[in-house]
What we know:
32% of the residues lie in helices and 27% in strands. By secondary structure, it is an alpha+beta fold. It has one domain (2-205): Cysteine proteinases (Cathepsin B, Chain A), CATH 3.90.70. The strands form two sheets. Strands 1, 5, 6, 7, 8, 9 and 10 form a seven-stranded antiparallel β-sheet that branches. It has a three-stranded mixed β-sheet with strand order 3-2-4. A hairpin with a 6-residue loop joins β7 and β8 (172-178). The longest helix has 14 residues, at 87-100. It is globular, with a radius of gyration of 16 Å.
Amino acid sequence: MKSTLSNIEAFKIIDRETGDIFxxxxxxxxxxxxxxxxxxxxxxxxxxxxxxxxxxxxxVRDKGAAESLMEEVWEFITPTTRGIHTVDMLIExxxxxxxxxxxxxxxxxxVVPKEKSLRPSMDTVVSFxxxxxxxxxxxxxxxxxxxxxxxxxxxxxxxxxxxxxxESDGHVIVNILDRGRKVPIDLxxxxxxxxxxxxFLHFTFI
Length: 206
């Protein structure tokens, strides 16, 4: 089973000075040290906003324009001294952004508690992500502890754009956007081995 957004190429960004191509934005593009350190949440929201304004197939966005949107988003999706470390915190800030733009925010979340006995099943998480991608909506993913999935960065938001359940072993692999790259991770391994809170969120504006 595979779920994917309809136009992954809409995330492509070009640096006109170097010719480098990125998938989605990177917090390393922010202007200050604190923004570069804590800006993963604003970057994920920027990615989702960019995808909501889907670029035509084959087109590539300009890095300068992406950086300007990142800075605008930062004004509303502003991290605390601990970053944006809960799903509810991102919902609150995304809703404020929508209100400032005269829009209503529609969202669904899937929280993953620290306590294993309270966590949603892998099937529940798959259904949540599949539903969003099937409606062509990217998913924000909060990972506070990567567990045994070494590709993930701790205390970090990333953008989920594709998902596939492998027939060989049943593991669920998702492609995420992180620091301007599209990267595969084993979501099953993360859900089984993470030792902290995390979760998923998708939202749209009307």
